[in-house]
Amino acid sequence: MSTSELRPALSEITPTTPDEWIQRAAEVAAILAVDAAVRDRAGATPYDEVKLLKDSGLVTLLGPTEHGGGGQTWPTAYKVIRTVAEADGSIGQLLGYHLLWFWAARLVGTKEQIAAVEEAATTNKWFFGGAVNPRDADVVVTDEGDTISFSGRKSFSTGSKVSDVTVLEGTLLDSGTHVFAIVPSDIEGLNFLDDWDNIGQRLTESGGVTLNQVRVGWDQAAGFVGKTFQPRVYNTLNVPTIQLVFVNFYLGIARGALETAVTYTREKSRSWLHGGYASAVDEPAVIDAYGDLQSKLWAVEALADAVALEAQVIHDNAWEVTEQQRGEHEVRVAAVKARATEVALEVTSRIFEVTGARSTATIEGLDRFWRNVRTHTLHDPVAYKRREVGRHLLVGELPEPTWYS
């Protein structure tokens, strides 16, 4: 059954409060959950799923209310991402990345650019992709007078084929200054390679992209005035902001795995023949394992929510945030990223210990949760997150703003 056939399940009431938006995310998750395992195996481009996100209003969650957006904050957005990811980790990631790139103008742009982008993106319900893989420094930006052109290649471009617009990043040929710009995804010279074939997050359309003289006007270069970039500390908040996106779809996937496993244990698991218990739910080892996993997940979810509230203070003070505030926040983000990674991997792996051998059948789809977490948690080494926390604790060192910290 396709998601399009299930869309009448969406409420006709337009959400206005954080709780109502989280409930809307739960409605979307319920639709996605019906055939999540089937869609994961098929690996088809998620056009219907992205349309569902648009129809639900989640793509404009952070958009200004005067343009028809939800007008919500990042703490709500993170919970929405987590909720969607419970049903489908790929779609949770797509939504999370979209919301980050929707926010890109605020992170880097001038006030005039921010207003223009958010009005257009909200009014037109743009879905964002991003060709901004930081490990690839091979996109060169050339000054052509009134225009600039992007040429090169990125190994990853999440959202690619399903996006309306794509955020580009490259470095100016002479100075090495980074330049961001938003372009239509069907612009001449932007070619998606359709080569995403990984074990997890299979519906994220995260394949490579080539850029062949993709041209935009200098006025579209985010944060530039008269060909000169206007720096501020908030420019560096893209990393902690998206790292919290990661945290929340990891936790969503883990929650989805745990709840799916609980249902399986209640309805299908058999007690061990030598245990002496009539039902698997009465076995001490099963009870202990579920209690352990639930407790750990609750703890990290609480930490994630606390750090999200801390982040919102910085977003609210975007034009005045200091390096000290930014650095201390990044340490907290690093801490929750490390714990979320470890707990999500543990939950998605250990569920098989309490569901039993028959739960490994392909039709059950329990493996997708682990494959999804394992694939994306390799984005950047968790040891370096713990290093940030340890160095700050021992010597007060603040993480240097980089593409990963």
Mind sketching the topology for me?
Layout: H1 18-34, H2 36-42, H3 47-56, H4 74-87, H5 89-102, H6 104-108, H7 111-123, E1 128-131, E2 140-143, E3 147-154, E4 165-172, E5 178-184, E6 190-192, E7 209-217, E8 224-225, E9 228-229, H8 238-267, H9 284-316, H10 323-355, H11 367-376, H12 382-395
Parallel strand pairs: 1-4, 2-4
Antiparallel strand pairs: 2-3, 3-7, 4-5, 6-7, 8-9
InterPro entries: Acyl-CoA_DH_C (IPR013107), Acyl-CoA_Oxase/DH_mid-dom_sf (IPR046373), AcylCo_DH-like_C (IPR036250), AcylCoA_DH/ox_N (IPR013786), AcylCoA_DH/ox_N_sf (IPR037069), AcylCoA_DH/oxidase_NM_dom_sf (IPR009100)
Domain Acyl-CoA dehydrogenase C-terminal: 245-379
Keywords: Flavoprotein, Monooxygenase, Oxidoreductase
The CATH class assignment of the largest domain is Mainly Alpha
Q: Could you list the spans in which at least 5 consecutive residues all have pLDDT below 50?
A: none
CATH architecture annotation of the largest domain:
Up-down Bundle
Radius of gyration: 22 Å
Q: How many helix segments?
A: 12
For the record, the count of structural domains works out to 3
> What value does the average pLDDT take?
95
Describe the main β-sheet briefly. 7 strands, mixed
Helix-strand topology string:
HHHHHHHEEEEEEEEEHHHHH
Straight-line distance between termini: 42 Å
Number of strands: 9
Shape: globular
CATH superfamily of the largest domain: Butyryl-CoA Dehydrogenase, subunit A, domain 3
Domain Acyl-CoA dehydrogenase C-terminal: 245-379
Protein name: Monooxygenase
GO biological process, one term: L-leucine catabolic process
Organism: Kribbella antibiotica
